[in-house]
Amino acid sequence: MTVAEALGRACDTVGALELDRVPPGSVEKTLRIIADCLAVSMAGFRTEPMSRLLEADTASGLVTGPAPRNPFHRSTVWGGGHAPAHHAAFLNATAGSFLELDEGMRPTGHPGMQVVPAAIAAAEDVHASGADLLRAVIAGYELSARLFRAVRLLPAAHPHGHVGALGAALAVSLLRGTDVRATTAIAATLPLASTWQACYDGATARNAYMGHAAAVGVRSGDLARAGFTGSFASFDVSLGELLGRGFDEKLPAGRLRYDELAIDASYFKVHSACALTHTALEAALEIVERGPLDPDAIVRVRVDTVAAVGKVDVPAAPNDLSSRFSVSYAVATALATGTSGPEAFGFRPEIAALARRVEVHVDPRLEEHWPASSPARVRVEEADGRVRESLVENPTGHPPRDLSREAHFQKFATAISDPDRAREGWARVMALPDLRDVDALLAW
Question: CA torsion, points 248, 252, 254, 255, in degrees to nearest 10?
Fold first, then answer.
């Protein structure tokens, strides 16, 4: 089977998903992913770059407010206002990438923030039902997850911006009624050459990788309706040769297992940093929780973990985004502050100095557990000879340490920053299966 044939078959298989066969637990997981994406994006809109971009787009007419509302701007911008579906998807997904709190899956991928903004924007545009949106998100997530597992990216290639666009396109095609294969093939022809280097440098334009994928998902439907065509075979070339080392065509083309949907294996972040840092970061937090720790008394910190963490074994550049992609800086932050929220990752020279005392090593015994687990052992040596150590198999929010519904609502409410609005918003999302028109989803 060629890659092109596998992709076409995957679109047919996943596009035929029947919502009434999806287990209740999977439905709830999807609703929580939608809620998570909304809240994380809304928090992202409060960052200075996103607030400035939204202000500029409003001034230029790309985004309009509720009154008077442009009749052609039918999709909600989660930071305020309305826009055409493709632009709302771009802004919402870009904002969702800023704080590194978006959900994800292993091996490294983040389907939710690339699929959900596109699906909601398209659903609002066509006044789809909540059940239709739910089905589209589950199917789009399934396709993206299968492709994340099938593609073997080169070490320097970042996973955002290309694979997620195909899942977004499939979700949009289900909502708009365009041909699933045609729409997804167009998205397959428009990948990004996204890189980890942008993360290391702290280039915030990197956050638009997510926005690109969501926007391409919507625009692929527009292009398909206009008669444009795409190429699944080009996806094999771009992701299998230019950005990767081949493609396992068996993975995306398998039958749909309702008892093993990809969405069930997703995780929710509780730490405002790259997911690859989370296990070591949480081990450091456990050490701090056991008793007072003087950062100045730390002589050496050793982190033993899995090889995948090597992608973020880099020193942090002096900015907030880069600090979120350095495991040594993340561990130093946890040891020095005992926190891991968005406010903890403002770059500070004293944290960077402590990070230089952090060594990261691959432990073959821990590596055997990847990707089912991502274990890390943190060992802290102090000037008085005392040694403190903690081993964490998986961080909070990752299977099998799933985030409880109550803890997840607390994350949601914190991101929304208004308790009453958060309660109403959470309730609306949880009632999505019974919503007649998605246009009412965000009326809170």
Answer: 180
The pLDDT of residue 120 is above 90 = yes
What is the DSSP pairing of strand 298-305 with strand 75-76?
unpaired
- The Cα–Cα gap between 133 and 242 comes to 34
Sheet of 387-392: strands edge to edge?
358-362, 298-305, 376-382, 387-392
Cα 375 to Cα 371: distance, rounded to the nearest angstrom: 10
Pick the closest to residue 97 from 243, 279, 269 (CA basis): 269
Cα end-to-end distance, the chain, whole Å: 48
**Amino acid at residue number 387:** V
Whether 243 and 191 have beta carbons less than 8 Å apart is answered as yes
pLDDT at 250: 85
Average pLDDT over residues 318-338: 97
Helix (H) or strand (E) holding 303: strand 298-305
Classify residue 292 as left (phi > 0), alpha (psi -120 to 50) or beta. beta
pLDDT at res. 439: 92
Residue 320: φ, ψ to 5°? -65, -40
